[in-house]
Amino acid sequence: MRKTKRVIAQFTFYDRTGIQQFLEKQALKGWMLEKISSYGWKFRRIEPQKINFAVTYFPEASMFDPEPGENQKSFWDLCEHTGWQLASHNAQMQIFYNKRENPVPIETDPETELETIEKSAKKSYLISYYILAACAVLQVALGVWQFSNDPVEYLSMGSSMFSALCWTILITMCSLEIGGYFVWRRKARKAIDETGEFTATRGFRNIQLTMMWIILAIFAVFIFTIERRFAVIVVIATFAVGLLASAVWGFSALLKRFKVSAKANRIATIIAIIVMSFGFTGFVAICVLDAVISSDWFEREAAYTYEYKGVEWKVYDDELPLMVEDMVETDYDGYSTSWYGNESVFLAKHDAYQRPRMDDLKEPYLQYTLVKVKMPFLYDFIHKQMLKDFPRNYGVTYEEYEFYERAVEIDASEWGANHAYQIYMGDSAENEYLLCYNDCIIELRPDYEMIITPQAKANVGRIFG
Amino acid sequence: MPRAKFQTLTEQMFYILLCLKNECYGMDILDRVPAMTNGRVNVGSGTLYNLLEQFLEEGFIDETKVEGRRRSYIIMPKGIEMLDKEVERLTAQLADYNSIFRKGEAQ
Q: How far is A442 from A460, CA to CA, in rounded Å?
């Protein structure tokens, strides 16, 4: 039988009622709290029994204290006098247990108890939630900005959506903790004025744990659905960030061991966080640059290369859903075919091109962007967005301009599509099409000299329709 | 300036100050208050710690001895004033009670 166990605490910081009940239940099940820390709460096996627990806050204490201060120790002594033994403490939170029957509670005055919780909250807990919430809001704002810039690209990137989701969940968690605290405090204040009773706290541990598991589950899905080499990078980066966090806490713990004062430790730790974060970012940037320059880790593997006018050209051999051969007759076999893009649960967006070698530029080429809409509710939105971005005017709004591009709806039936659009410059139709099929939209840009026969259009419709 | 909370004393505050008429350790207060009141009033260790801190801040009491973690305190004139004020209030309360109910009995 296991002698010890660790529990992910994730308790709401002011939830003294919830923590007490949790610890009393654990003791009845035969688990005694041994140590609380940021890495989870450690329990050791005991005879199942009824033990009273009390959670109190000592505002003077700090997580950077090299050792408990004299005041804190005399507070412990007072508690011990009434049978309350210290089980563990972490920063301001002090957890006591008492085996006596009906012991005198540590807090017998709800007003003083509320005051100590308020002081501790103001001194540390709330501040860390404010900082976390600010980071999360910044990240979400960045996501919103990226989304508004190019929604189609954004929705096809699993990584940006995963990060947006994580930060949104984090904002929810912070709001629950901060908002929950203020709501509780107001209620508690009112109750003291009216009835003189302490208002039991309510935590959000289950919600927090659920959210944490959701993030982990999505992370796992994300890792297993992206390309292997990107997954490797993401996993390494995740570990590195974990290592970085441990290094910072290790550094702070080391300072504590050398009895550095709480104030100096706090400053040194903040500097360490900044230096290490920048150092880490710089290190990663250098590694990435180095990898890009010196190796082909980030380069896709080419089928073969050739030299043309002293430059090396790569020829890819990816499979494409639609080929030049589907649109015109050709027996040219020197094509390079490339298929590249992103995929998320909402969209798959791929850029495809099929190009002749540099020494055969007279051969017809084909390029297109294929967006597969996986969630039908997004279809109309993506349709509208792609139609809006289809003419490429690069910010020119002067419609009389000779090269101003307009998207004109054309007969879709020839293409076997639901909607079809073509670019016009003035009165001249360009060889650029936007074709909407049931679950995909394709922006087709064939060779501008290519004559699109009814047969070619039918072929496109057959492939995507 | 005394805070609004010390306009009146709670029972616990009253008995803590009362105990400190003679110099005593924090721990002694924890035992003396229930002994004095036949267990009617109990002061929790956390409450005591915080109230002592606040009394010191307000100048109601003073620290007399600090032997490491053991500290002893004694009441100061300002604290006695607080006690007197509270007793006055309680006496007035009692007098009001008597004037209504005892009078009724006499009739």
A: 10
Alpha-carbon gap: A89 to the closest alpha carbon of chain B (Å): 15
Which residue does chain B place closest to A70, by CA atoms? B69
A118 touches chain B (CB under 8 A): no
Note the pLDDT of residue B8.
86
Give the start-to-end residue ranges of the domains of chain A: 4-98, 110-294, 304-464
Q: Is A273 on the interface with B (CB under 8 A)?
A: no
Q: Is residue B2 part of a domain?
A: no
Range of the domain at B41: 10-106
Is A465:A418 a contact under the CB 8 Å cutoff? no
Terminal-to-terminal C-alpha distance of chain B: 47
pLDDT at position A301 is 75
Q: Give me A46's structure tokens.
A: 């005991």
Would B92 be classed as within a structural domain? yes
User: Per-residue b/e over A256-290, b at no fewer than 16 CB within 10 Å?
Assistant: beeebebeebbebbeebbeebeeebeeeeeeeeee
Give φ, ψ of A44 to 5 degrees. Answer: -120, 155
Considering only the C-alpha atoms of chain B, give the largest distance between any 2 of them, rounded to a whole number of Å.
62
Query: A348-392 pLDDT, tens per residue?
Result: 999 999 999 998 888 999 999 999 999 999 999 999 999 999 998
Is B51's CB within 8 Å of A112's CB? yes
Tell me if B50 and A105 make a contact (CB, 8 A cut-off): no
CA distance linking residue B62 with residue B43, whole number of Å: 19
Over the stretch A55-91, which tens digit does the pLDDT of each residue have? Answer: 999 999 988 888 898 899 999 999 999 999 999 999 8
Instruction: Work out the average pLDDT over A183-207.
Output: 91
Give the mean model confidence (pLDDT) for residues A276-294. Answer: 78
Question: What's the pLDDT tens digit per position in B52-75?
Answer: 999 999 999 999 988 878 899 999
| Residues in A touching B72 (Cβ below 8 Å) | none
Instruction: List, for residues A298-349, the tens digit of each pLDDT value.
Output: 567 788 889 898 888 889 999 999 999 999 998 898 899 999 888 888 999 9
- Tell me the H-state helices in A297-417: 379-389
Burial class (CB in 10 A: 0-12, 13-18, 19+), A35: middle
Nearest CA to CA, how far is A374 from chain B (Å)? 59
A41: nearest Cα among A88, A99, A94, A106: A88
B63 in a structural domain: yes
Distance from C-alpha of A64 to C-alpha of B39, rounded to nearest angstrom = 40
Chain A residue closest in CA terms to B70 = A74
B42 touches chain A (CB under 8 A): yes
Tell me what pLDDT residue A184 has: 95
Q: Number of structural domains, chain B?
A: 1
Å between A197 CA and nearest CA of chain B: 13
ipTM for the complex shown: 0.89
Q: Is the pLDDT of residue B106 over 70?
A: no
Strands (DSSP E) along A192-335, which ranges?
304-308, 311-315
Q: What CATH number did the domain enclosing B21 receive?
A: 1.10.10.10
